[in-house]
Amino acid sequence: QVQLVESGGGLVQAGGSLRLSCAASGRYTMGWFRQAPGKEREFVAEVNRSGGSTYYADSVKGRFTISRDNAKNTVYLEMNSLKPEDAAVYYCAARFVNGGYSYWGQGTQVTVSE
Fold first, then answer.
1. Which pLDDT score is estimated for 57?
2. Which positions ≥6 away from 91 have C-beta within 8 Å?
3. Over the stretch 1-34, which tens digit does the pLDDT of each residue have?
4. Is 54 within 8 Å of 66 (Cβ atoms)?
5. What is the β-pairing status of strands 74-79 and 18-24?
6. What is the mean pLDDT of residues 76-81?
7. CA of 43: how far to CAs of 58, 83, 87, 90, in Å?
8. How far is Cα of residue 49 from the mean position of the Cα atoms in its chain?
9. 25: which residues sit within 8 A by CB, 6+ positions away?
10. pLDDT tens, residue by residue, 36-55
11. How many CA atoms lie within 13 A of 15 on its CB side?
12. What letter would DSSP give residue 96?
């Protein structure tokens, strides 16, 4: 059973920073997604099992960094230079190699004020 538990959301002013964490029950390819009110869930970033490869949505490149600590089975999303349009519920997700994202955390709210 894959279990994912996110933490670290909150309220921040535009231009500020937040770090999200996702504790997993094992080692998987991990991703972060987000969903704003009235919008579809969208991909944010992904890191492979080793942490050696990362991918980002164009909207967050240069501002967000995904990383992982495999000793702790934890993935992080460091978010800098936050914008109001980054406000959303952020979800971490896990997938097996060559599979789709099938496992999701409960989500954590990120609110960015003007």
1. 98
2. 6, 32, 33, 34, 35, 41, 104, 105, 106, 107, 108
3. 899 999 999 999 999 999 999 999 999 999 999 9
4. yes
5. antiparallel
6. 98
7. 10, 17, 14, 10
8. 15
9. 1, 2, 3, 4, 73
10. 999 999 999 999 999 999 99
11. 1
12. -
Pair of tokens at residue 17: 């920073």
Question: Long-range CB contacts (< 8 A, 24+ apart) of 26-29?
Answer: 26/2, 26/73, 27/70, 27/73, 28/2, 28/94, 28/95, 28/96, 28/103, 29/94, 29/95, 29/96, 29/97
User: And the tokens for 102?
Assistant: 């099938």
Nearest CA to 85 out of 10, 6, 14 is that of 14
Encoding tokens for residue 67? 């990383």
